[in-house]
Amino acid sequence: MTTNYQGSCHCGRIAFEVEGDIQGAMSCNCSMCQRRGSLLWFVPHDRLRLKTPPEDISTYMFNKHVISHRFCAVCGIHVFGEGTDPKGNRMAAINIRSLEGIDLEAVPVQHFDGRSK
Fold this sequence. Notes:
globular; 10 strands; 1 helix
């Protein structure tokens, strides 16, 4: 069973919906994730639907430049990232903290040592 989640940045300039079943989230300790505190849920990119024009979304890339970190230039909230999985499939890494109605305490969190990668 899948759920259609609504998400946004703090000020609402970036809005999106994503469909899926949240089985867990990832917390990474790389230099970017540690600072922003995201909890990431990975979904196939076609499950992410923007309600915001793409030109309203800012992008930051660092390190190997393989992940596009998407955020709001107005309020600064990171809403999702975009990249490809090891098999070459387009993926979205949704920051579940930006989704409405999520009980964060009920989501199992896997820790990933991104600092060592």
